[in-house]
Amino acid sequence: MEEQKIEKAGTKKKVGRSVLLGAAFLMATSSIGPGFLTQTTVFTQQLAASFGFVILISLLLDVFAQINVWRIIAVSGLRGQEIANKVLPGLGVVLAILIVMGGIAFNIGNVAGAGLGLNAMLGMDPITGAIISAAFAIFIFVVKEAGKAMDKVAQIAGFVMILLMVYVAFITSPPVGQAVINTFAPSEISIFAIVTLVGGTVGGYITFAGGHRLLDAGVKGVESLPEVTKSSVTGIAVTGVMRIALFLAVLGVVSQGLAIDPANPPASVFKLAAGELGFRMFGVIMWAAAITSVVGAAYTSVSFIRSFHPKIEKYHNWIIILFILVSTITFALVGRPVNILLLVGALNALILPLALGTLLVAAYKKNIVGDYKHPLWLTITGGLVVVVMGVLGIMTLIEQIPLLFK
User: What are the TM regions of this chain, as residue ranges (predicted)?
Assistant: First the structure.
């Protein structure tokens, strides 16, 4: 009898660890999409070793944002839109609309990225590859234990991407010493690069991906905060390892004086580093990055409308599947609608300050968090992220609107 109790306790601990790791990797792999690969490559070309400073600052902002969001979701036991509606009636609906709009628009890009990944990996037609990839993503939500399947896919894809990226970084022999020096004493600083990285890593739906996954798995309450905090930091750490490995790989290629193809910068880096094998490896990384982003975007976007009607809650897996289908059909028939992506990209920059600012207000409302006392240092650092990203997000929106009418 005692052995059975111990076995059950051990199983419970193992499942808990798996869920926490799954949430961390869901957040991390959601942020490591096709855009992540291109941004990192292009900014490393522009800033060289000084891009290390951009990575450092963006990771600090990411950590402050995610710890705040995950903790407040866990303590309240509510999803982001439910918290927002309690802070100000109707605000949750506005937030949900922005998240879903952004999710669909960026998922078109994610589906396209998955098609390009299979094209590089196997020589497959990109549209055919996108349709096959969408079918794979849909299958995840058809199986009985969709949450566990999603966790497992995110973890496997994350580990594969890290191993391949670290390998390429190693064989390009980057000037690591110079990168370390310029990380703390940069010769050039790009505010635009910092905003882009933060927005791409914890902006839009990604802000809530891990927190909502933990909530759906039943991880909530003040007693769960140590695990929730650890999981959020793990997610950012995984993203950081990927970003640093890709940065070093590109830096190694650039420092050798090799020319990167502007038509497809990340693919060019892998081909220059390891020839045809490197190009195939890029295909694997691109597909893994894109397919996990497809899953993360669909899951998190739909989680923002689940509480609006009992029918949506009941059939949420089928709505996730519909979400993926709409993104795939749009890409297959229309391609990537550039103007919509520009507008939604600019709006996406405003989601993080709006969402994080709302949750910081909620952290001090007893009808939402009860007797929980939010740490002052988290409020201050979270407030800093809100102000910085809010101002820069508005600047980005002003810059992008004229482009829509060209």
Answer: 20-37, 43-67, 87-108, 120-141, 153-171, 191-215, 236-259, 279-305, 317-334, 340-364, 376-398
Separation CA 211–CA 303 (nearest Å):
11
Q: Which domains does the chain have, with CATH numbers?
A: 20-405 (1.20.1740.10)
pTM of the predicted model as reported, rounded to 2 decimal places: 0.83
Query: What distance in Å separates the CA atoms of residue 137 and residue 392, rounded to the nearest whole number?
Result: 34
What is the residue whose two structure tokens read 């990167």?
Answer: 260
406 residues of the chain, pLDDT tens digit each: 433 333 334 434 444 677 788 888 888 887 787 878 888 888 888 898 999 999 999 888 889 999 999 999 999 999 989 999 999 999 999 999 888 888 888 888 889 889 989 998 998 998 999 999 999 999 988 887 777 778 788 888 888 888 888 888 888 889 999 999 999 999 988 887 887 788 777 777 788 888 888 888 888 888 889 989 998 888 888 888 888 988 998 898 888 888 888 878 888 888 988 889 989 999 999 999 889 889 888 888 888 888 788 888 888 889 999 999 999 998 888 776 555 555 555 566 678 898 999 999 999 999 999 889 999 999 999 999 999 888 877 776 676 566 556 6
Contacts of 218 (CB under 8 A, 6+ apart): none
280-306 exposure pattern, b = at least 16 Cβ within 10 A, e = fewer? bbbbbbbbbbbbbbbbbbbbbbbbbbb
Q: Answer for the pair 80, 208: CB distance below 8 angstroms, yes or no.
A: yes
